[in-house]
Structures are given as C-alpha cells and as structure tokens.
Amino acid sequence: MPAHGKHRRKKSGPLSRGILAAGAGGAVLALPLIGATGAHAAEPASPAVKSAAVTRSAPAAVAKDAPKTYTVVSGDSLAKIATAKKVKGGWQKLYKDNRDVIGGNPSLIVPGMKLTLGAKASGAAKPAAKAAPAAGKAAKAAPAEKTTAASEATASGWAAPVEHPTVTTQYHVAGASWSSGYHTGSDFQAASGTSVRSIGPGTVVSAGWSGAYGNEVVIQHSDGMYSQYAHLSSLEVSAGQTVTGGQQIGLSGTTGNSTGPHLHFEVRTGPSYGSDVDPIAYLRSHGVTI
Fold it and tell me: Which burial class, exposed, middle or buried, applies to 59 when counting CB atoms under 10 A from its CB (0-12, 13-18, 19+)?
C-alpha cells in the first residue's frame, strides 16, 4: 500500500518551467515555449531600418560663386559701368566679355541688358547656345528693336551724334552771339548727361577743354573730314583713340560759352575753328536721316 504522507517536491532546475504530465507511459516532461516577446527581441533589424539608422546623408555640394552680373539702366554706357564697377581693362574689357550680348556696336546697350562682370577672368562657363529650330521649320526673326541712330550705324557705319536728333539752331544762322557773325555748326537738343556719339569711324584728334566750346572732342574720319562735339559734361575718349560710328564718346552738358544744355556739333575740312561746312548736309551724304 502506498504510504500516506507528503513528499517534498524537488526544486526545479533550468527546466523548472517545464510541465510534468502524467501519462500511461510514465511521466513526460514538456519543454517551455519561447515567449513571443523574446522571439521579436532576437530577430535581426531590417536592412532598410539599419541603413536609415546608420547612414548619414552626404553634405550638399557647395556651389561656386557665380560671376557677377549688372543690369543696364537708362543713361548707362560701357565706360560709365566699367568705372563704377571697377572693371579691370575698362569699357574695352567689358565690351569684349559681353560682345555676344551687345553685338557689333559697343554703344548699343539698352536698359534691361544683363552684362557679366569679369566672366572671362573667373573662368565662368559661357551661356548655353539657344536650341536650333526644329527641322523643316524656319526660325522666326526676333522682333526688331526701335530704330535709332546707333542701330543705323551698325549697317552703314555712320550715325547722328545723338539719338532722336532734333536741331534747335541751324548751321549758318546769323547773329552777334557768335564771333564769326554766324553759327558755325548745328545745335542738337540734348539734356545734360545725354549720350553723344561719334558720327562715323575715325581717330580722336583732341579731347579736352577748348575755351568757349567747353569740353570738346574732335575726330578725323576716314574721308579726311573732321567732326567736333562741344559743351560736353564728360569725355570718354582720348587723343589717338580709334572710334567707330555710333560709339559713345562723352555726355552732353553746358560747359564753356553755353546758354543751356545742348550739343554743339560741327563738321570741318580741318581740325580747327574756321573750316566749317554744313554738318547736316554732310551727315545726309553718309545716309544719316536728320
């Protein structure tokens, strides 16, 4: 007979959480199941998650300084811009660097043009060429700019001394105001600071102060004739310099013996006073409409 009494239960070892089940064949030890939480803890991290946690984004590339640009405003000239922006090489360098934008005439700059300052010196890349028109289609011409004396100079090589020329005092008008007894040139309406341009290609003979004429420029042209521009407020050329038709040579003013801002313009057979001819007739002979 089985003995009555309590049996001391042995302490369970590492498998204490097992379940001891009695069966017909004897005691069976059931091993414990691994908990769900433990299973998740043992799983390796997803490659994507690991990559996001470890990989740092590459620093953004630092853009190089872009070349400086300048937008042309009314009253600007290449010489004025080059001086204000301290362009090494002066207006000639500024023109050379922006010839593709300006075109063949350095005086033809219009408000809104964007000029690059020092592009060649910095090694900046040239702007991409415009795409060619689709095959079989003719490219449309760009809308024509408003015709000016300077734009006429591009084709003919000659231009009026100011844009939209209006003569206020004609050549050879008699009067006591002039030492010769008559007006030796033609006066053009021009507010102070108006662009004054060479009427044609030539070489500057003189540029500076000339008594009653104030600041003046005298240019000898390829046909041997001379043109004179007087009462200027500032000069942008010097003696010996070669100029083209329509090129800005100074700004109008009222220096010397002048009653107000205007341009006194003469055409001469020689460089000095007293050899004047009709300046309007001379301009017209070169195809300039006045």
Answer: exposed
